[in-house]
Each structure stands twice: as C-alpha cells, then as structure tokens.
Amino acid sequence: MSILWPAPQLFFAVVEPDAVVLDIAADRYECLSQAADWLQVLEDRSLQVADASMGQALVDAGLAAQSPPPRPLKSVAPPDAELDPAAGGALAAIMRAGVSQAASGLRFRRLDLAELTAPLEVRPERGLSAGDVAAFKSASAWIPFEGECLDRAYKLRRYLHALGVPVDWIFGVRTWPFAAHCWVQLGSQVVGDNLERVRRYTPIAAF
C-alpha cells in the first residue's frame, strides 16, 4: 500500500469499476479501466494505491507524483442541500449580476480551462442569500451566448465571489456512458443547480 499524489494539473476520481483522470491543462478526461481494484482517492485527494507496480506505472506515465503539491487540493463535501430559487430580485441586484455575467462571458471565451480554474483574489466574506441566486437567474435571460454547465457555473462562481461568497466550483463525472458536469457549491449546499442531478456525478475536482 502506498500513497501518491496527482501530478500537477491532474485530478482523479474513482467511479467503480474504473477511475477517471481530468487533465486541466489539456482540457480532457481519460479513463483507467478497472482501476478501482487497486486505486482509491482519499479525502485530501491523495491516491491510495494497493498495487506497487501500478503505482510505479502511474509515476512513470506522469500521472502521479510521490510528493504532495505546493498548494493543497480542495476536498469536496458530499452535497446534501440545494439553493436554487426562481428568478427574481431587486433591479439593482439584477443589473449587477448582468454586468458580472457579461464580463465573465468575455473572459470565458478568451481563456483556456487552466486559466478559468485559477484561484480568485481573496475578498472579505459574507453569507449567501436566495436573492443573490435569483438575481443571477434573472440577469441570465438577458445575456447572449448562454452556454452549458461549464459556462454557467463559471459565471456564477465569479459573480458570487465578487459579492464575498466563498463558493467552490465542482467538476463531477460518471461512466457507462461517460458524462461530465460542473456546478457551484457552498459547503455541502449546491447553488443554482438541482441536488438530485448533481448526486449522479462523482466529484473529481474543486476550485
């Protein structure tokens, strides 16, 4: 039994009977077939490898390292609640959300995934309200180029972070058939998405 760490810009999730690897730099997923027999991802995102030869194979392939990364990888709390109100909110809040989404949309189309998931500037924190999410939803109806979950979650994360709400951007996967999804979460509360949909996915990375 040995403990390894994902190589830089790589993230692992075990979705039995396989494991999935997210390569942020390359913006792609890879599947390690039947890896659940010898690999576990621990709460701190380290890799517990039961087979020494397979562990060495991960290192030799550049997928894993023997020392932890300089910045600890974020753990993900299992989601157990949701905050997904209907659209609404005061006009000023909706306008602020609209400006945020427009600016984030320009950044989204210009940056690659590694740049999109980079840490955000630390801000004074405050709590989350249903009104924050409702205003964001109202503004979304007026913003062109509304995209899939990656686009929506990126915009919501930046909007809430600017308000001082320390949310995480979660990436999740499932297999057979393969699918990926991402959402925003505050602690164990899913924000702006459906709890039951999110629970179909195994978290692979948090930013």
Helices and strands in order, then pairings?
Elements lengths: L1 E5 L3 E6 L2 E6 L4 E5 L6 E3 L5 E3 L2 H9 L3 E2 L15 E3 L7 H20 L2 H4 L13 H11 L8 H15 L4 E7 L4 E8 L2 E3 L3 H4 L3 E5 L1
Parallel strand pairs: 8-11
Antiparallel strand pairs: 1-6, 1-7, 2-3, 3-4, 5-6, 9-10, 9-12, 10-11
Helix pairs in contact: 2-4, 2-5
Distance between the termini: 29 Å
Helix content: 25-40%
Number of DSSP strands?
A: 12
Shape: elongated
Major β-sheet, in short?
5 strands, mixed
Helix and strand string, N-terminal first? EEEEEEHEEHHHHEEEHE
Unreliable residue runs? none
Rg measurement, Å:
18 Å
Mean of all residue-level pLDDT scores: 94
Protein architecture, described:
The structure is a single chain. 30% of the residues lie in helices and 27% in strands. By secondary structure, it is an alpha+beta fold. The chain has a five-stranded mixed β-sheet, with helices on one face. A four-stranded antiparallel β-sheet has the order 5-6-1-7, covered by helices on one side. A three-stranded antiparallel β-sheet has the order 2-3-4, with no helix packed on it. The radius of gyration is 18 Å and the shape is elongated. It starts with a strand and ends with a strand.
